[in-house]
């Protein structure tokens, strides 16, 4: 199977005011999305290993790198991350899941984010070209840090075509602008925000 990437799209957002209040620092989020050929579109294939071997490791390396570069930071400065797959109409959600739910995708991603430890939160769905995908984001070291629980909506007007998959990696250099709901650590200790 041959690696076929039609294009890579990078989306960067900086939020300065949230909830009618200026943020102490901009909330900066970047996502890199690869539009790839789905060789299994329109047919059922039992063995997805060739798809995994063709795309997982390569995309697990290049997409986080492009997202981190878009923010102009180092992997050490990444605080939270996530991943996603949007499968074209002739594919199965399983095709996108096969690519992103592997150690060959996740380990290079975590490595680039300064040896991050948490599982990468994910979003997968099937949709037509221009469909949106809401990428889940969580803290890279501790999933109980709620200030970094966010989503980032992405879309590409001409993708995915019916025989394509959009694979996404998202990173952020901070949590939400004004987090006030407290940590799950504190809630588990019986301490609730006032």
Task: Report the uncertain regions.
Answer: none
Task: Please estimate the helix content.
Answer: 10-25%
* Beta-strand proportion: 25-35%
Mean of all residue-level pLDDT scores: 95
Number of helices: 4
Tell me the Rg in angstroms.
Answer: 17 Å
The coarse silhouette is: globular
Per DSSP E runs of 2 or more residues, the count of β-strands stands at 7
- Cα distance, first to last residue? 56 Å
User: What would you call the structural class?
Assistant: alpha+beta
Q: Strand-and-helix sequence, N→C?
A: EEHEHHEEEEH
* Major sheet summary line: 7 strands, mixed
Write the layout of secondary structure elements.
Layout: E1 5-18, E2 21-37, H1 49-71, E3 80-87, H2 93-100, H3 103-112, E4 122-126, E5 133-139, E6 150-154, E7 164-172, H4 184-188
Parallel strand pairs: 3-4
Antiparallel strand pairs: 1-2, 2-7, 3-5, 3-7, 5-6
Helix pairs in contact: 1-2, 1-3
Description of the molecule:
- By secondary structure, the protein is α+β, with helices and mostly antiparallel strands.
- The chain has four helices and seven strands; from the N terminus they run E-E-H-E-H-H-E-E-E-E-H.
- Strands 1, 2, 3, 4, 5, 6 and 7 form a seven-stranded mixed beta sheet that branches.
- A hairpin with a 2-residue loop joins strand 1 (5-18) and strand 2 (21-37).
- Helix 1 packs across helix 2 and helix 1 (49-71) packs parallel to helix 3 (103-112).
- The longest helix is centred in the N-terminal third of the chain and has 23 residues, at 49-71.
- It starts with a strand and ends in a 6-residue tail after the last helix.
- The model has no long low-confidence stretch (mean pLDDT 95).
């Amino acid at each position: 199977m041959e690696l076929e990437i039609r294009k890579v799209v990078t989306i960067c957002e900086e939020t300065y005011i949230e909830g009618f209040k200026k943020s102490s620092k901009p909330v900066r989020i970047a996502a890199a999305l690869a539009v790839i050929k789905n060789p299994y579109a329109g047919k059922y294939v039992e063995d997805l290993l060739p798809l995994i071997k063709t795309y997982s490791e390569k995309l697990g390396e290049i997409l986080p790198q492009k997202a981190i570069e878009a923010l102009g930071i180092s992997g050490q400065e990444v605080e939270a991350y996530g991943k996603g797959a949007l499968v074209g109409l002739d594919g199965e959600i399983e095709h996108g899941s096969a690519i992103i739910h592997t150690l060959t995708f996740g380990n290079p991603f975590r490595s680039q984010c300064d040896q991050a430890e948490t599982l990468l939160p994910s979003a997968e769905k099937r949709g037509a070209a221009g469909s949106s995908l809401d990428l889940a984001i969580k803290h890279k070291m501790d999933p109980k840090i709620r200030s970094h629980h966010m989503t980032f909506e992405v879309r590409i007007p001409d993708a995915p075509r019916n025989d394509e998959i959009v694979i996404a990696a998202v990173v952020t250099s901070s949590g939400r602008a004004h987090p006030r709901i407290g940590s799950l650590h504190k809630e588990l200790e019986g301490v609730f925000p006032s």
